[in-house]
Predict the 3D structure of the following.
Amino acid sequence: MQNNKQKAVKTEYEQATVSAKLDVLDNWMGKIDGHNYDLAYKIFSQFDAINQQIIAESGIQKTPAAYQVQWDYLQEKLRKDAVLILRALGGVDAFKKLRDEKKHPESAWWWYLDDYLSRQQRKNIKKTGIIFASVMAVLVAIVAAYQFFLAPPPEVRERIRHEFAASRHMENGEFPAALQELDLALALDAQNYQNWTQKGVINLKLGDKTAAEQAFVQAEATAESLEFYYLERAQDELFLRMNEAGLQDAQNAIKANPNSARAYLLVGQAHEQMGKTKEAYAAYESASFLAETQDDVELMATVRVRMGMLMQSFSLSSPQP
């Protein structure tokens, strides 16, 4: 009986980790612009991590339906933004080279996104039935390929390698090792506020407030905006289950931008992780309203998934208007 209880607790923790990884992936995919190699590479690696964990959990307990909905939604979004993300990775040839280096299996379909695009292009050509359209499609493909960015220099790829190593160490609770990798990444790019923020949060987790504050000062100075700084900080803190700190920084993001739908989403996540379901639901409602008014369909879908998960987990009924 005791072993069954321990197994159930472990499964619950692992599912929470899948949820956190899905939220991080959703946040990254909302920022795809066709130019950010680092972000595009992180997205593919996050797909790998989530897929591996879902496969590992399948033998223990079925993945909750709400998680599966979000996972399916993110895969569909990747297909929708295939051209942008391949462009960010340096084009089809650079993408194929990257795939071959890692020897990804065909079951990880996102690493064969170029094949998906090719199939879609063939379908479109067949629909037209016009030779001229086929010729134009080839010309467009050539022009697009010419405009694709070249593969990044070795130092950029090295920095990304350190960043992912730091993330893996952080997920496993190996915080000193994570800090070492972040220092190596920052030595290659001292203007990366995400790495400074992550370093500060890990030091805060370890109880080194002085080191944490020094890193946060650098993060705030290099961030695109005060809102983005606090959003990144809150997201890292919530990932490490530093719920009080994550809630405070999500609220700081709201102070920086009262219309930040993502900040309200993080406030809801903090409350949910603390077991405050009513407060979480209220924050998710605010996030949903702001996302809808800002016509942010993707974020609105994410928030509604979170609300559905909350309702499913705690048997809440939707408040009456």
